[in-house]
Each structure stands twice: as C-alpha cells, then as structure tokens.
Fold this protein.
Amino acid sequence: MLIQLHKILDVAQCYDILRTTRWEDGVTCPTCGSKEIVKNGKDPIQKECQHYNCKSCGAYFDDVTDTIFSGSHQGIHQWITVLYLMNLNVSMRQIASELDFSGETAQSMCATIREGVVKKSLIPSLAERLRLTARAAPECYVVSGHKGQPHNVIKAGRKLRRRRLKDKRGRGTSADEKNPVFGMVQRGGLVSLKVLPNVQRITIKPIIEAHVEKGSTFYTDEYNIYNKVASWGYEHKTVNYGEGEYARDEDGDGKYEVHCNTQEGI
C-alpha cells in the first residue's frame, strides 16, 4: 500500500518548524521590523496558522506572510513534502505522484522554491564565500526545442521540426537559437548559471566580478574569452581540450586539481 508522506505529516508541527526557522529571535513585523507583536487569533481555515498584530505600525500578518507559502492553495505540509523530496533529488514526476498533483502544479511549486532560494542568495554573501576558492567556468549551448506540440505531431505521423537555423555550427548566440549558458561553480559549494545573449569578454566580465571576490582561482578551458581573467584580479589556470588535456597535476601530489570537470558535470 502506498502511503503519501504529506498525509501523515503533522500540520501544527510544520507551522512550529516554520515559526522557529523564520523567527529565531522572536516574531518580527515584516512591514517595519518591530518586535512589539501581539497574537491576533488563528486563521479561520488553517487553524494551526497564527495571526499577529504589530503594535508599532499596526500591520496585520500571519506565519506565512511574505513567504513562498503565502496565497498558495497547497498546505504547508505539502510544501514541506516538496522541499524534502527536492533535497533527495527526486524527479518532478515522482514529486507529482507522491502528492497526487498534476505535473504543472509540482513544477510550479519547485520553481517557486528555487526562485526563493536565489532571492535569499545575495551577491555580496556569495562573493564572500567564494574567496580564494577554486572555480571552474566553462560554457555550454542549448538549442531550442521542437516546434509546436511534439506529442500531437507524433500522433499525426509527421516528423518533428527543430526550432533552429540550419547549417549553423560552432559557438552560438541567442539570435541564432543556440543559447549560451555561462556557468561558475565553487568546488564543493555554490553554483551560478546564467543564460546570456552571447559569450564575449564584455558579457562575462561583470558577471564574474559580481559573483567572485578578487584573488579567487579560476580553472577554465583554453577558450580565448578567458585570456583576460588574470588581468581582472584572479589567479587563472587552464586545461587544453584541443590537445587532449582534461586534467593536470601541477604540484606532483598525485591529485589532478587543474580541471573543469565539476562544471562540465553540472
């Protein structure tokens, strides 16, 4: 018998976890930041959700105000289930099945969670964490998908048509439907992926400088857009894919630390 996780979660306990995580030092008004707060009853529908009133600015709010859970048709126990399953790298289809949701609902919830994580990951703190940290920064290109509705085209017995220009080879741009994705990864840490209009020095320089603190080490391939990385204030080491070099041991300790394999895997 299949037991769905969200159906056995204690909703009241989920709200306790939310309050503890959100307000470690006591309930704070999301409008003015005051701690002069009084309780103002429970939600008439979600009985476990506490309402509050701010004595400083008069604002009314509850446990989920200004969070990704606010205004959602899904209960907090369902959101926590999604968070738990995402942490286990469970597929979107499995998440939808576990919660008995449509694929669109599961996708929307996962996207909302990811967007919330990105908003909390401010650039200054990101840069501080990347101080003197080995980085890899290759790029890849994503071709746009099939035209129309592929499932209906297949049912009709026709061949799928690609949404791309013919005879276009090499490095692409968004204009020729071969979108560049520029990636940076902290080994054992954070990842940054950006969809760009093109991959040029003038495009990648502000991204690197915004996300990575000066003095960090960059590991890249031999692509010439990275030639100026050292002059921007970073240590720069490369591997030469054209010569069949994918990793290199520079200090003779038996570890091939110069490589871009972390980002290539991503």
